[in-house]
């Protein structure tokens, strides 16, 4: 099945160029000019990936991205003209998968699209209540014999039993599962979970990761999933574990 991408940008020339380029690259692309149009088509369709301009008249891309994530397990690339750290930080908190700064090369965008699509859960479809409003499609990611329901905040182990996790542990797991196969720095992880480490040698994040490994790794000292990249951060590998939604 061709991956479905939606492009939301108020610049018609750029929007059309992106849609044409990605369509020629083998994707099923829908392009709209604002958040209102995106909300309307989301009642009829689900998407694998959304490319959202942050600065748009009316509802901005950050708000739209938050709404989309509540409705479907969609990958998100934010396009920003400023490239400021505040855009990156806020987007990270919303679960952004990547960023691209305008003006950008279409080849660079295609590379980022391919990278995100390799690691995001596939959409299961939106569901309507009897009176019409959408209900969120559940986001479920599997790794090894584990199954994590990101919306229900539950993890099922290989034996079928529930894996007991503290809120702080699940918060860390969710950051990794929504950004799987991607190197994350300590500061990026801390920002995403709202953790303020008071000193450079604070071990608050390390302790959470250690506890999480004990619950999901057969051998925490030689982890299969949650790996340390010395001097760089951490990466949660799904390459040999499988994923779905």
Description of the structure:
This protein has helices spanning 12-24, 35-41, 61-71, 85-93, 106-119, 167-177, 186-193, 204-216, and strands spanning 4-8, 28-32, 49-53, 75-80, 98-101, 127-128, 134-135, 140-143, 146-149, 154-156, 226-229, 233-236. 35% of the residues lie in helices and 20% in strands. Strands 2-1-3-4-5 form a five-stranded parallel beta sheet, sandwiched between helices. A hairpin with a 3-residue loop joins β11 (226-229) and β12 (233-236). It is of the alpha/beta class.
Shape assignment: elongated
Mean pLDDT: 82
List unreliable stretches of 5+ residues.
125-136, 241-245
| End-to-end separation | 15 Å
Strand order of the largest sheet: 2-1-3-4-5
SS element count, helices: 8
Largest sheet geometry: 5 strands, parallel
Structural class: alpha/beta
Features:
245 residues, 12 strands, five-stranded parallel sheet, 35% helix, single chain, alpha/beta, three-stranded antiparallel sheet
Helix and strand arrangement:
Layout: E1 4-8, H1 12-24, E2 28-32, H2 35-41, E3 49-53, H3 61-71, E4 75-80, H4 85-93, E5 98-101, H5 106-119, E6 127-128, E7 134-135, E8 140-143, E9 146-149, E10 154-156, H6 167-177, H7 186-193, H8 204-216, E11 226-229, E12 233-236
Parallel strand pairs: 1-2, 1-3, 3-4, 4-5
Antiparallel strand pairs: 6-7, 8-9, 9-10, 11-12
Helix pairs in contact: 6-8
């Amino acid at each position: 099945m061709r991956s479905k991408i939606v492009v939301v940008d108020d610049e018609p020339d750029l929007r059309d160029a992106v849609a044409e380029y990605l369509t020629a690259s083998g994707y099923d692309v829908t392009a709209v000019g604002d958040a209102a149009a995106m909300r309307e088509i989301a009642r009829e369709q689900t998407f694998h990936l959304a490319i959202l301009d942050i600065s748009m008249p009316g509802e901005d891309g950050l708000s739209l991205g938050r709404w989309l994530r509540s409705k479907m397990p969609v990958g998100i690339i934010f396009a920003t003209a400023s490239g400021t750290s505040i855009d990156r930080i806020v987007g990270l908190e919303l679960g952004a998968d990547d960023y691209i700064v305008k003006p950008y090369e279409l080849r660079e965008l295609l590379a980022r699209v391919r990278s995100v699509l390799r690691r995001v859960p596939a959409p299961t479809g939106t569901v309507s209540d009897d009176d019409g409003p959408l209900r969120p499609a559940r986001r479920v990611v599997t790794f090894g014999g584990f199954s994590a329901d990101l919306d229900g905040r539950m993890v099922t182990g290989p034996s079928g039993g529930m894996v007991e996790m503290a809120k702080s542990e699940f918060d860390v797991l969710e950051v990794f599962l929504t950004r799987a196969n991607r190197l994350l720095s300590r500061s990026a992880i801390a920002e995403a979970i709202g953790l303020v480490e008071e000193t450079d040698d604070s071990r608050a994040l390390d302790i959470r990761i250690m506890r999480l490994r004990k619950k999901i790794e057969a051998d925490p000292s030689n982890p299969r999933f949650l790996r340390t990249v010395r001097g760089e951060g951490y990466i949660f590998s799904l390459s040999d574990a499988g994923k779905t939604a």
